[in-house]
Amino acid sequence: MLVIGLGYVGLPLAAEAARRDLTVVGYDRDHAVVSGLNAGRSHIGDVSGDDVRVMLAGRFVATDTEDAVGWPATIVICVPTPLTADNGPDLGAVRSAAAMAARRLRPGALVVLESTTYPGTTEEVVRPLLEKGSGLTAGLDFALAFSPERIDPGNHAYSIRNTPKVVGGVTPSCTEAAASFYGKICDHVVRAASAREAEMAKLLENTYRHVNIALVNEMAIFCHELGVDLWDAIRCAATKPFGFQPFFPGPGVGGHCIPIDPSYLSYQVRRLGYPFRFVELAQEINGRMPGYVVSRATELLNQNFKPVNGSTVLLLGVTYKKDCADLRETPATSVARQLWRAGARVTYCDPYVPEWFVDGHRVEAGGRVADAAAAADLVILLQAHSAYDPAEIGRQARLLLDTRGVTAAGERL
């Protein structure tokens, strides 16, 4: 099999396929990524260097040369799908990967798109590129399907193997071909009605999370004004055994999925001539949370007769997600940027991030958490990594703003 794109989605897929004794070629345009992998080094937190060395000892090789990929029986496209400047879908990488797949396509092969996108992309964008570039017909000469990636960085309980895998083909036979392939890698395969439903399933999953996070983020703002402990209210509500799932407020949303995927659905809805008010409102609320954190930090400093300008502010946990090294779309970037603009001296501590750059500027690392907390005028806990001792942070910090609700001391968001 050929995996196009060896990032947060493609490399874990290649690793799992290699563990199942499949012959895997991983293609990526980034020469440094390819060289590192072939030397036994991983650039992804969920795939260790030891994992890569096991892959290399088996049937895996990474390459940045198209001619080296051969004529694979299965091609899986796992390239990024970012947003354009006007929040539209940027399918440049998908189109490029599909064009490459067309050049390597042989009769009887399977092509699967895993890159998150709007419903209709597999049928309307990828299929024509494959058919034009290969001279073959999807559903007759080769199989074409969509399967949403469900990678959860830092999650040690659920992996590709034991997370149900949704597949949807452009024809029923394509669905079966994809289900047969993923059945070799995953414990449970779920068949969608078509590629469109599989594409929508991914957007539905993340839009659901996006909207519910926005709900509790907005509640956090007015609960602070009302003097209500929202975390305690959530704890109590979560005891209901039906009809409620807890979501928690925070400094914003990050990663590739939640900040970006709902925009793909919103884009599709706008093409129909409708506004998607839930998504647009959720984006507005979640997008303003870093600013709200900074305003709360300013308020806390002022209450203690300190201006933001000239104060040292320590940011604890700058990744977007607990216990992982992923910095994609992290709200910590916006928090740091706004604090700098207000004149603060910003430092950070994060066990997963040895160096952190914001807008090309290196953020000063604070050293040991306890020492850095004691030295700062204000500590903002942005990510509650398991390595942190909340009680120790509470004891050492002069002022503490806890955006995750895990400490007994200080102010909660």
Structure, explained:
This protein has 413 residues and is an alpha/beta fold. It folds into three domains: 2-195, 3-Layer(aba) Sandwich (Rossmann fold); 202-285, N-(1-d-carboxylethyl)-l-norvaline Dehydrogenase, domain 2 (Orthogonal Bundle), CATH 1.10.1040.10; 289-412, Rossmann fold. The chain has helices spanning 10-19, 31-38, 49-57, 92-103, 121-134, 172-182, 195-226, 230-237, 257-271, 277-287, 289-303, 331-341, 369-375, 390-396, and strands at 2-4, 24-27, 60-63, 74-77, 110-113, 143-146, 165-169, 189-191, 312-316, 345-349, 357-358, 361-362, 364-365, 378-381, 400-402, 411-412. The strands form three sheets. It has an eight-stranded mixed beta sheet with strand order 3-2-1-4-5-6-7-8, sandwiched between helices. β14 (378-381), α14 and β15 form a beta-alpha-beta unit. It is globular.
The first-level CATH class name of the largest domain: Alpha Beta
Number of contiguous helices: 14
- Secondary structure tally: strands: 16
What spatial form do the alpha-carbon principal axes imply? Answer: globular
The largest sheet has its strands arranged as 3-2-1-4-5-6-7-8
Q: Would you tell me the overall average pLDDT?
A: 94
Task: Compute the separation of the termini in Å.
Answer: 48 Å
- In CATH terms, the superfamily of the largest domain is NAD(P)-binding Rossmann-like Domain
Known CATH architecture of the largest domain: 3-Layer(aba) Sandwich
CATH topology of the largest domain: Rossmann fold
Task: Tell me roughly what share of residues is in helical segments.
Answer: 40-55%
Provide the number of structural domains.
3
Strand content: 5-15%
Q: Which structural class matches the secondary elements?
A: alpha/beta
Indicate the radius of gyration in whole angstroms: 23 Å
- Order of helical and strand elements: EHEHHEEHEHEEHEHHHHHEHEEEEHEHEE
Q: Which regions are unreliable across 5 or more consecutive residues at pLDDT < 50?
A: none
